[in-house]
Amino acid sequence: MGDILSVFDMLSWFPENISTFGQELDDLFAIIYYISVAIFFLTFGILGWFLVKYRSRPGHKGYNYHGNNIVEVTWTILPTILFAGIGLYSDDIWEKTKYSKRVPKPDVEILVLGKTYGWTFLYPGADGKFGRNAYTDRTARALMTATNPFGKDPEDPASADDFMMENQFRVPVNANVVMRGSSQDVLHSFFLPHMRVKQDVVPGTWMNIWYNAFKTGTYELACAELCGGGHYSMRAEYQVLSKADYDKWLDGKVAEVAAASAPVAEAPAADTTAAAPSN
Ligand SMILES: [Cu+2]
After folding, report:
1. Are residues 25 and 84 in the same domain?
2. What's the CATH number where 155 sits?
3. With 60 as the cut, is the pLDDT of residue 279 above it?
């Protein structure tokens, strides 16, 4: 019997939770799930019973029924209590994950932009803070182009070390990661199933997204908003790394960015003694 019931237990379909607030959300989901299952069997049970009891039979005549106040008041009040109860119960976890006021102090801050069909990330680089860009200064939105999606101001020295990542990102374990998400075109939804994070990103504004992972590994980011023909391909991988591995990776990226922006050494004069190509 247990085996048969477990087939219907869709809660086991959840991906592994790696987020500090994930268990609270899973508990909320489980409560709503079990209430829904109970109401499903109750209503369809009653429906089936009525179908059999009041089936068409010779000698039985149907009659018109004009409502019952007690039944109507009951089916209004019970769902009201149920929804108000779920609302009150879920208020704290909703505020914790979604309210701007409850976003924790970032250990790591990353900007993310959705576009048809991919994700671009901006890290604040060696100095740990963003220079002037479309997030830190609304007026820098004018600088946003296809090659400079975050509207980085090349005149601002603090912007020079801010580096981009395409369709992948990395975060440290046991750290408050705060992301500011927006879109370059249409609505997308930034969905980290293992992190229990889902947030629509909207062009023209920046949404707060935060989480704290307690387990290292490689996980998936998916777009959860049907955003066009290539929606299915709008996915990326991200890694949750130990603090040491993350710092090592970040140092490597910082060195890479510094090398790329260093003035190029003057090219050596062409070697005139080189053998001419033989014909
Ligand atoms: Cu999308």
Report:
1. yes
2. 2.60.40.420
3. no
Q: How many A from CA of 229 to the centre of ligand 1?
A: 10
Which neighbouring-strand residues pair with 164?
122
CATH label of the domain that carries residue 95: 1.10.287.90
Same domain, 96 and 109: no
Compute, in angstroms, the gap from residue 140 CA to the centroid of ligand 1.
24
- Same domain, residue pair 33 and 122: no
Average pLDDT over residues 74-97: 95
pTM score of the predicted model: 0.84
Separation of CA 112 and ligand 1 centre (Å):
13
**Count of domains in the chain?**
2
> 31 alpha carbon to ligand 1 midpoint, in Å?
30
pLDDT beyond 90 at 177:
yes
Domain residues for the domain of 123 are 105-261
Chain centroid to CA 276: how far? 59
Q: Looking at residue 274, what is its pLDDT?
A: 47
Average of per-residue pLDDT values in the chain: 90
Q: Quote the ligand 1 centre to 134 CA distance (angstroms).
A: 20
Do the beta carbons of residue 205 and residue 184 sit within 8 Å?
A: no
Distance 98 CA to ligand 1 centre (A): 20
Cα(237) to centroid of ligand 1, in Å?
A: 15
Token pair 């790394």 is found at: 241
Residues 96 and 209 in one domain: no
C-alpha 190 – ligand 1 centre gap (Å): 8
Å from CA of 8 to ligand 1 middle: 31
Q: How far does the centroid of ligand 1 lie from the alpha carbon of residue 38, in Å?
A: 35
Beta-carbon count within 10 A of 266 CB = 6
Instruction: Judge whether 183 and 115 are in contact, CB under 8 Å.
Output: yes
∠ at Cα 45 (43, 46), nearest 5°? Answer: 65
- pLDDT: which is higher, 11 or 50: 50
